[in-house]
Structures are given as C-alpha cells and as structure tokens.
Amino acid sequence: YPASGWLSRESLNCIKSSSEQFYQESLLLFQELRYKFGIHIVLGQLGQIAYLRGEIEQAKTFFEESLRFGQ
Fold first, then answer.
1. Helix, strand, or coil here: 53?
2. CA–CA separation, 36 and 18 (whole Å)
3. What is the number of helices (H) and of strands (E) in the chain?
4. pLDDT for 6-63, tens place per residue?
C-alpha cells in the first residue's frame, strides 16, 4: 500500500524531513570515517527523498554520487 493512502501529505513531509536530517547527519559521520558503503547507501536514500519531493535534478545528483561510491 502506498504511504500516501493512509498518511496525510503533512505527515509524509514531516517524515521525509526527519529522515533527511538523519541521513544528512549519517552522511557526515560516514564521510568522516571514510566508510564508502555507508556513504553509498545514504546518498541513495537522499536521492529517494529528493525524487519524492519532485526535485529531479537533485535526486539525479545524489544517485550519481551514490553509484560512484558503490563501485
């Protein structure tokens, strides 16, 4: 079931905002540790959030960077 079917748009935005903050903090820690797999995963998640917001160019940038770290 799609999340939008049982959560309000405001609730989804709040969840995405909280998730984005968590992923941004995680990205900083993984970068500090030079943990490539963690960076790869987090960038992909940030890309998903940007995509869901309709920020296609930002999502593309996150996805491309994620792929670079996933190799």
1. coil
2. 23
3. 3, 0
4. 556 676 666 667 888 999 999 999 999 999 999 999 999 999 999 888 899 999 999 9
